[in-house]
Amino acid sequence: MSDIVTLDITSIAAGGDGVARHEGLVVFVPRTAPGDRVRVRLITKGRFARGVVQSVDSPGPHRTAPACPHYEHDRCGGCQLQHLELDAQRAAKAVMVRDAFARIGKREVPLPDVRGAGEPWRYRGKLTLALRWNGSAWRAGMHRAGAPDEIFALNDCLITDERVVAGLRAVMTDGARWLPLVPELRASLRVSGDDLLLVVEGGLKWPHASEFADALPSLASAVWISELGERRVLFERRATREPGASFAQVNAAVAATMEAHVLALVAAHGATTVVDAYAGAGDVAVALAARGVTVTAIEMDAEASAWCGGRLASPSRAIAARVEDALAGALPADVVLLNPPRSGVDAAVTAALVACTPPPRAIIYVSCDPATLARDVGRLPGWTVASLVCFDMFPQTAHVETVCELVPEAA
């Protein structure tokens, strides 16, 4: 079924789509704002429908003109909320988090505060491009919204650090002829201090890796991850080898604000022992150890774990292992930090926390996905949400970072 209908947008759903109702159906309409009256092509899908905007007949009070030409012209999938004023974006994100707790975690929580820091543009210290080989040349760009198989050529990305954008342009102009000739690759570039660090993913062999390195003297390091998952350092020009392929927050200003909040929460519980699970390169673990806390940092990435361990003095330690395999052996602890990937924690992690005697004074869960956060909190009977604070790590997008402080109900 496909019809042209007029709808009034009432709210923003998780993922960034506007929400309306039509003849009993919930309709999700991308690139719309609360208060918009829009004409859409309606596509019914079971219990809900999707709408494709044909025109905005009456804009809502918080709609604004997107700054990036790729947003509307190419329907770039990197941003979802550029058409909303920044305060309205943050208000929508607060509702997304609260609603996820109610719907998925079966927990009623107050509307959280959403904190920002720095500028809402040029904040991203990392960008990933999809590369496609057409038989004679590479095409590099971003995915279109709603069409993950389609990419468009990227001229600029207004939420990304200009040094990163320039570095990726250099990869595609100076280094492209030396890339592995396979149908698809991914190229990710991030800035670390003054250094540009590249990760290329895909292919089974890279016969011209040395020529690629010679063609790009502006890059400080390059890592290749083959399609079999094998990792190879192509070149390393940094004096210190902080792990370049491990996870790092893309928004340095907001990350610093969030880290300060996490450290304050740990201090408020008077913790002398902490398990830092999904510790990454260990910045939080090292900061805690510097305050006299004994930290056990658990991280699956062996290189990141080694870097963390090299900065920790005994009795603090780093364990290179999956959190679900190592957490029970690292408990008990005064406070447990969880900072998992978007998929959340394994059920074995929440089971270990529920079984721990005595229980931690607090679990501090840092999440980049409200849905998996709410799911995991729902797996922690006997624990209550003491505080919930969001951080606008990704302005212009529908993503939000959340710090959830949990304490035992008995406390």
Strand adjacency order, main sheet? 7-20-21-19-18-15-16-17
> Portion of residues in helices?
25-40%
Compute the separation of the termini in Å: 54 Å
CATH architecture of the largest domain: 3-Layer(aba) Sandwich
Rg result? 23 Å
Domain count: the total is 3
CATH class of the largest domain: Alpha Beta
How much strand? 25-35%
Largest sheet: 8 strands, mixed
Shape call? globular
Q: What is the assigned CATH homologous superfamily of the largest domain?
A: Vaccinia Virus protein VP39
Q: What does this protein structure show overall?
A:
Helix content is 25%, strand content 32%. With 411 residues, it is an alpha/beta fold. Strands 7-20-21-19-18-15-16-17 form an 8-stranded mixed β-sheet, sandwiched between helices. A 7-stranded mixed β-sheet has the order 10-9-8-11-12-13-14, with helices on one face. Strands 1-5-6-4-3-2 form a 6-stranded mixed β-sheet. The termini are far apart.
Structure described in brief:
This protein has helices spanning 69-73, 86-103, 162-175, 209-215, 252-268, 283-290, 302-310, 323-330, 347-355, 370-378; strands spanning 2-8, 11-12, 18-22, 25-29, 37-45, 48-58, 113-115, 126-133, 138-144, 147-153, 184-192, 195-201, 221-225, 231-236, 273-277, 294-299, 317-320, 335-338, 362-367, 383-391, 401-408.
